Amino acid sequence: MKIDLHAHSNKSDGTDSPAEVVYRARRIGLDVVALTDHDLADGWAQAQAAAHAVGIRLVRGIEISTEHEGTGIHLLAYGLDPEHAPLRTELQKVLDARSARIPTILAKLAAHGVHLTEADVRAAQGDARAAGRPHIADAMVASGYVRDRRQAFDEWLGEGRPGRVTKYNLPVFDAIRLVGEAGGRSVVAHPWGRGSVRAMTPQFFAELAAAGLTGIEVDHNDHDAAARDQLRAIARDLDLVVTGSSDYHGSGKGPDFALGANLTSPGEAERLLG
Ligand code: AMP
Ligand code: ZN
Ligand code: FE
Ligand code: FE
């Protein structure tokens, strides 16, 4: 039984359509795949139709952009009703904030000699409802400023770089509560990935668990073997579910993030999803 609980489509910042994500899952032999686009459920219907057609299970998810005391935290929510009004209102705020900061980012880049128009970003945005940094990165690639998204983030868009502009994220405790109210379960995505390494302490995980968190995404390519061991121990102490996932973004991220690159055990998936 092969289960991958974290993948993105071009409804947010992946490069495959929702159906293509599912077809690829089928092709590589997954039994279960979750579509977890950033802050929206726009791809669920298309992915569900594809999953039905090829005979694999789709898990409906959303990766919610949250934060706590200035640290960004991605919260994977599964099995929730995306129409739950209070949650939908909050997700729309995040999506609006993501798109609204594009002109500011473009102005900062222009001040450093990188000239892109909003039309360039819209072209890169394609089927996605909101434009984010990955689409700016794609526009930079298309205009020849950088090789790939990674270089765009490393040199221009990431933490401490010239084009960095913060945006509104949902307070993480509010997000966990709203996901619960919407009938879903939450899992912290790649907690020790990128800059957030060790900002999230065992004590903080305990507070999240007390607030209703269900699991920790332990097996993820942003985590080395030592980080995985430590996160697994924290999950065990707090009786949290351990997941493993690829965070597939199509050709938007490297081969380390290939669909199926990390998997969740059937037992843990059962605990999470019932
Ligand atoms: P935004 O929500 O517009 O700030 O964009 C954040 C998204 O960009 C994240 O959810 C990731 O999917 C992607 N991202 C962040 N850092 C990187 C990176 N270093 N390389 C590639 N993609 C990244
Ligand atoms: Zn993403
Ligand atoms: Fe993430
Ligand atoms: Fe993700």
Question: Could you explain how this protein is built, in words?
Answer:
The protein has 274 residues and is of the alpha/beta class. The protein is 42% helix and 16% strand. The chain has 11 helices and 8 strands. It has helices at 18-27, 44-54, 85-100, 102-111, 118-125, 133-142, 149-157, 172-181, 202-210, 225-238, 266-273, and strands at 3-4, 32-38, 57-68, 71-78, 170-171, 185-188, 215-219, 241-244. Strands 1, 2, 3, 4, 5, 6, 7 and 8 form an 8-stranded mixed sheet that branches. A hairpin with a 2-residue loop joins strand 3 (57-68) and strand 4. The model has no long low-confidence stretch (mean pLDDT 96). The structure holds adenosine monophosphate, zinc ion and fe (iii) ion (2 copies). Zinc ion is lined by residues 8, 13, 38, 249.
Largest sheet: 8 strands, mixed
Task: Indicate the overall shape.
Answer: globular
Output the radius of gyration. 18 Å
- Which consecutive residue ranges, at least 5 long each, have pLDDT under 50? none
H/E series, N to C?
Answer: EHEHEEHHHHHEHEHEHEH
Number of E-type strands: 8
Distance between the termini: 16 Å
Number of helices: 11
Strand fraction band? Answer: 15-25%
| Helical content class | 40-55%
Bound molecules: adenosine monophosphate, zinc ion, fe (iii) ion
